[in-house]
Amino acid sequence: MSVVPVLSAAEAAEWDRLARDVADIPSRVLMESAGRAVAVAVARELGPRLADGVLVVCGHGNNGGDGYVAARALAALGVPVTAVPLPGTASPDNAANRLLAAQAGVRFAAPADDWGSHGAALDAIVGTGATGPPRDAAASAVERLMRLNVPVAAVDGPTGLDLTTGEVHAPCVRAALTVTFGGFRRGHLLQRTICGTVVAMEMGFPPPPPAWPAVVTDAWLREVLTPFTAEMHKGDRGRVLVVGGADGMAGAAIFAAKAALRSGAGLVKLAAQEASVRASQAQSPDIMAVATVLGETLEPALAEALEWADAVVLGPGLGRGAARDRFVRAVARASRGSLLIDADALIAFRGAADELRSVLAGRSTLLTPHKGEFAALFPDLAETTRRDPFGAAMAAAERVGQTVLLKGVPTIVAAPGRPLLVSSAGNPGLATGGTGDVLSGIAASWLARGATGQVAGAAAAHVHGRAAEDVAHHRSVRTLRPDDLLGVLSPLWRELAEKGSPADPPFLARLEPPAVH
Predict the structure, then answer these.
(1) Dist CA 506 CA 203 (whole Å)
(2) What is the overall mean pLDDT for the chain?
(3) Which domains does the chain have, with CATH numbers?
(4) Other Cβ atoms within 10 Å of 330 Cβ, number
(5) How far apart are CA 452 and CA 226, in angstroms?
């Protein structure tokens, strides 16, 4: 399976060690590969700017060594390059490549000198493991870089950004381009705006350990997207039941049901209060319906629907209160297919994660909280979502013994005993009421066809985000509504199923900064 890892600083350091000590790749070879990959990315992304020269600010560690290799490679192409070495005891590989850069015709300037005029700049000050704010000469260099008013490409990550926690320290480089190696760093996904376009470049690392988190890509989705067969009938494509839609909140449940249909479910049924059923039947007669008062005693028709469904979405537009809490528990116990718990149904178990584990024991369940719902369900992990959402999601999944999809930037899908899957797709348009219900419907269509909770959640998060990107490209982030997502799902599914990404070495993966207009 195509895997692009998402690394903490410790994991990045371990990968370096594995490359050197286990794969026996000399550190100079790794540095040469990394620096040349940076030169390729800068030339590809900032090409028109290179004629006016490139400024490369280099720290004294191996990140600065990558910068000297990139400077030498660009100079070999005829690009005017000026390197600014920052003070400090240089690592051996850094010192060797600084000498080679000088021999290749790279001009050198001191930190206090006039750096001159350039078309672009390269931030090679500190590497992945840097923590805390830049200090002394590094801080001064960052401030000067930001005053140049030219695009800055960051090696590994922008100086000032903690690439494990995503914390932004002042001063911090605001990059137009970030070039990283082998995979993404957590901070890249947590601070998309600071990093600009992020490209992960292949540089000869050995395969990553399989336990590490991986980012979901179009290539990954194609590998898990099971095609339909000519012999299929509607029952083979999965039966989805959406339970919710209290009076005055029909929209949430209807959006979830529509999304399940638009994502391939063969049959979709809505269980909601009478007014919501009438609204659904009026606008979407292809969605079957069962009327329920949403009380703790399940009506025979609702109990029959729960037996019928391959996947149940519980929560969209359900409403809250003691009676609803009891209803949620009754539905969770009576359902026979896979279960997706979202929105108000999550709040029904606020502070009762141990009870939730007991209720869900023996069945496949996907929980899809945003951070507020997560904090209600796992109050002791609320602070962790701010410091380490990756760890928080995994801790929650282990606690309830089920898959947890923690919505956010990025969206993290954790399953007990499995590597994390991470979706970076999307934009601020998804911070709109009803869009999360669309996500639930997409995921339910996968659950109904037998996908695991983690695969269903990760696939749905990626498709959901890609749909938002498509809407932003053709319309606007500012005006995005749930119906806009539904409107682009059909052509998007076709594109995702059929459009292969041509090989473009050494580029492994690319993240554009999210649209904000």
Answers:
(1) 7
(2) 96
(3) 4-212 (3.40.50.10260), 218-511 (3.40.1190.20)
(4) 17
(5) 13
